[in-house]
Specification:
With about 170 residues, this protein is α+β, with helices and mostly antiparallel strands. The protein contains six helices and seven strands. Strand 2 and strand 3 form a beta hairpin. It is elongated, with a radius of gyration of 18 Å. The chain starts with a strand and ends with a strand. About 25% of the residues are buried.
Amino acid sequence: VTFCGLAQGSAGDLPIQKLGKAVSVMKLSKPASHAALAMAYLGARHDGRPIQARQVAAHLGIPDDSALKILQALVRGRIVQSQPGRAGGYQLVGPAEQVTLLNIVEAIDGPIVTDVSFQPGSPSLDGRLAKLRAACERATVHVRHELSQHTVADVALEATGNLGCGLAAAG
């Protein structure tokens, strides 16, 4: 998750514009976006049979190896289980209503933490840097909370393909 990056606009690498200025937005990494949509696909299946990685790839329109890497990361995150064999594949470990977007993002991208990468060269900046870090920490807490409020079931219900919480996929 990127807090202050530029979202990819419809013109490719051009930033989204608002009143002539680039707009900073929160971005979900492409693998995390794919993982959320893959989880929604797995969660929408109610027949109890595992789904093969190539089916997930076809559903998302991504290469098979990309889907496999995402699914393997979700297995390592313990929110998806894999079943080997001809009839094997992947399925959710628990109910879709219990897996949050936070679970998915952290399984793919790691923990969402505050990182203010600046070491002041002057002690006079310490107080200002502390205020900056505190503001960023509050933003981190808010993002973690918001992602924890949306589940795979919520995403599976969203017919438009939008993640349902206003997050833009990073390029």
